[in-house]
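Lab notebook, bench 4. The sequencing result for the construct came back, and we need a structural model before the next group meeting so we can plan mutations. Quick request posted to the team channel:

Model the 3D structure of this chain.
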Amino acid sequence: MPLSLTPTTATSGPLDTSLKRHTAFIKRLRTALHSPESVPVLVKEATALSLEKYLEEIDDAAAEGVTRCKNATEVFGAVEVSWAVLVERMRIGWLDRRLALLILAGTSSHF
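Done. Here's the predicted structure in token form:
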């Protein structure tokens, strides 16, 4: 399924293209996606960065971050960030199958 890389126009001003900020964002997705305190920060960063070039890395990092979730609150935070990045921000009408399966597996083990 081809990716639609059309960012939303809801952002104000130019988007940040700094490699350093993108690398930090991707690292936080991998290591802190499961932390409820990180969710608002990650969502805010997702709206400020130009993500088109890094979509594959973001998908991999989000999938890895979801595997670190241990309870329903963490899973819901991961879903919020993934939705903000992949669906709302990038206008992709689907989640990566692997990421969706990890989210479903995480939620099913907590309900």
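The two ends are 31 Å apart (CA to CA).
Will bring this to the meeting.
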